[in-house]
Amino acid sequence: MVVMAAMPTLLDRRLVVVTGKGGVGKSTVAAALALAGARQGKRVLVAEVNAKERVSALLERRAVGSQIGRLEDLIDAVDVEPRAAMREYALMILKFKAIYNAVFENRLVRTFLRAVPSLAHLVMLGKILFHVAEQLPDGRPRYDLVVLDAPASGHGSMFLRLPQVLATSLPPGPLAREARQMHQTLVDPRTTTVALVTLPESMPVNETIELNRELRDVAGIRPAALFLNGYLQARFSASEHERLATAPEPLRPLAQTVLTREARAGRSERWARRLAVDTELSPNIIPFLFTRRFGRAQVEQVSRIVESA
Ligand SMILES: Nc1ncnc2c1ncn2[C@@H]1O[C@H](COP(=O)(O)OP(=O)(O)O)[C@@H](O)[C@H]1O
Ligand SMILES: [Mg+2]
Questions:
Q1: 91 lines ligand 1 (CB under 6 A)
Q2: Structural domains in the chain?
């Protein structure tokens, strides 16, 4: 008898990093993964980084801010913000508030931190990885699943490559060691998995192909899943398209609207094929949801799709 091990899904990893360009649906996918994880009984932390807090609103909950707070049963959230993360990190190392205040509340130091945003990013990522490894007093992990809604990939894969870059460029010492350890966590496929999110449009698709290549070839992080969000499914056949194109006058404006939508659906399909070829990942399709208000019900719908990815 052949026993097939079930393929691990995204939710089987301790850390899922959701990444992609701004506005493609990253926070939606992160919130959906959190719901799907909680449905499986996992204790979930969903962390946003240096962005306007979105996940709580998508789940129709009160905002949590820069300290971990409970969104609902099994789901905690945090909006990691550079100064709060830096403070927490420094307090862990410096231990004493007075020293922290003397060092980090210093105007010169604050200016320095603003000038070296990569350091702030490193500390924010460090905070999240701390919670990935965090244990309860009885030795169980505090969270079964941490979903990281990564900063918009305007700067390519830099956020995830940062530990590697700093590990090799900082002088030997605790910070370089910390960075190396962070990189090891990120490249360990048993712990971490990266999900790319994109839209069926040319810019997001091209950037996703590039981001995937950079992560794979430069950072040594192989994305495991690709979500193609806002997908339009064609509704009519080619012969129906022809009939729509010659619709008589009173119906013509309506027929043109339908044809425009169908053309967009055709593009969705072509971009899906292009992504599959150029990323070697099979896109998980998330349909465009027609709704007046995008809220929890829609995120629940998306969570049914992402749970099997
Ligand atoms: N599948 C979808 N169908 C329709 N609208 C969507 C879909 N996914 C996201 N949206 C809309 O796009 C907005 C931006 O999504 P969000 O997840 O906040 O993007 P990002 O985090 O990448 O900036 C959402 O608030 C929602 O209104
Ligand atoms: Mg977002």
A1: no
A2: 11-87+118-233+283-306 (3.40.50.300)
Ligand 1 contacts CB of residue 223 (under 6 A): no
Please give all residues whose CB falls under 5 A of ion ligand 2, grouped by chain where several chains appear.
26-27, 54
C-beta atoms surrounding 202 within 10 Å: 11
Separation of alpha carbons 120 and 137, rounded Å: 29
Alpha helices in the chain (DSSP H): 26-39, 55-58, 82-94, 97-104, 107-115, 117-133, 158-169, 174-187, 202-214, 238-245, 252-279, 296-306
Query: pLDDT tens-digit profile of 238-273?
Result: 999 999 999 998 999 999 999 999 999 999 999 999
Give CA angle at 119 (121, 193), nearest 5°.
35
Q: Tell me what percent of the residues of the chain surpass a pLDDT of 90.
A: 68
Q: Is 8 in the pocket of ligand 1 (CB under 6 A)?
A: no
pLDDT at position 1 over 60: no
Would the pLDDT of 77 be above 90? yes
pLDDT at residue number 3:
61
Nearest CA to ligand 1 atom 27: 294
pLDDT at 96 over 70: no
Q: Ligand 1 within 6 A of 43 CB?
A: no
**Token couple for 295:** 């809220």
Ligand 1 center to residue 23 CA distance, Å? Answer: 6
The model's pTM is 0.90
Structure token pair of residue 249: 């006058």
